Amino acid sequence: xxxxxxDKKDALIEFIISNLTFFVSDKLELISTATTGxxxxxxxxxxxxxxxxxxxxxxxIASRVVEGxxxxxxxxxxxxxxxxxxxxxxxxxRACDVYNIPIATNPASADFLIxxxxxxxxxxxx
Length: 126
What we know:
Elements: E1 2-4, H1 9-18, H2 20-23, E2 30-32, H3 34-41, E3 47-49, H4 57-66, E4 73-76, H5 86-98, E5 103-104, H6 107-124
Parallel strand pairs: 1-4, 2-3, 4-5
Helix pairs in contact: 4-5
């Protein structure tokens, strides 16, 4: 899942562009909240867009986590602003913690997570 608060959308797009070979893999099924997803679609990536975050998109992704349909979450959050849907965001973070789903909340942790996934893929190829 790919999510970004408004002030972090550009950072997520830059991250995706710098890791484009990872994100164009046929093995990935990408989901996103609506506004973030529409920006990702402009890159030519195939992504399923759910509702926007304030309209329940974070909850929809949390539901996918609970159902075992989401393996990794990249959520570039803006910690310096309050959000009207903070309880939905907390639910998503809690679902990731409860179901042991890796979640990266900034470019540094996302880079570490992507490198880890790539290393695992490379190791399983042998």
